[in-house]
């Protein structure tokens, strides 16, 4: 297992408001890390800071990807990392697409941004990923606009699209919220199969401790922007250190 990502004593703020305090953790290839905690504790902010997405600023510490500081990259280098080495499935929509473009146009554009590829080869790659994730009728998905697909299907397509450039890390922000339990289970299985097939490392942000328990190797519990517990998922859930985690487990798992 290679260490891919490392947070070293990171503080993160919006304007003058500090949101995350002294965050340290590491993520290795093929590892699934869950981040749980109440609404507003800083989960999405943590993911956004990895890709330098607009808003949050790192005010202390460092974020390393394969021993290289992500904070020192210029915009062009960061664009190459985004979508190629580290890609993100967003909380709101899953599918990070232009609603006015078909899935096939989005596929072609996001692959062409990182390598010289023909449209046919790009679409073949997408069909292969859709099939490996058991998405039904790949050709129909490709010719659809996002609004022609259900919410659950958009989330699943979003995960498939995040895989297009075979990133080493996928950041998934609540990919199962707002979905019915059957589709949620399907998505969790798809994330697992990504790890098995491609050794992708995944950071999964979720409100759902049961999902975190079933899929993650390691877990971080955030409370008001600080790490309340972090470590091997089984160990944290069976012997949590903080009172907050104890209460969270009690209310979710009984
Ligand atoms: N663009 C922004 N500008 C200023 N403050 C923000 C911004 N985005 C988020 N915040 C604040 O940062 C804190 C953490 O927000 P964040 O979205 O990271 O929480 P979260 O844990 O993802 O919550 P949820 O579970 O509801 O998605 C909150 O207090 C929020 O109000
Ligand atoms: Mg969030």
TrEMBL record:
Example GO molecular function: ATP hydrolysis activity
One Pfam family linked to the record: ABC_tran
Keyword annotations from UniProtKB, A to Z: ATP-binding, Cell membrane, Membrane, Nucleotide-binding, Transport
One GO cellular-component annotation of the UniProt record comes to: plasma membrane
Do you know which PANTHER family this protein is assigned to? DIPEPTIDE TRANSPORT ATP-BINDING PROTEIN DPPD (PTHR43297:SF2), OLIGOPEPTIDE TRANSPORT ATP-BINDING PROTEIN APPD (PTHR43297)
* Keyword Membrane appears in the UniProt entry: yes
Give the family this protein belongs to, as stated in its UniProt record: Belongs to the ABC transporter superfamily.
The protein's matches in SUPFAM superfamilies, at most eight in alphabetical order, are given as:
P-loop containing nucleoside triphosphate hydrolases (SSF52540)
Q: Does the keyword Membrane apply?
A: yes
- Subcellular location per the Swiss-Prot or TrEMBL entry: Cell membrane
> According to its UniProt record, where is this protein mainly located?
membrane
Q: How does it sit in the membrane?
A: Peripheral membrane protein
Which protein is depicted?
Answer: Dipeptide ABC transporter, ATP-binding protein DppD family protein
Please report the stretch or stretches of sequence annotated as the ABC transporter domain: 5-249
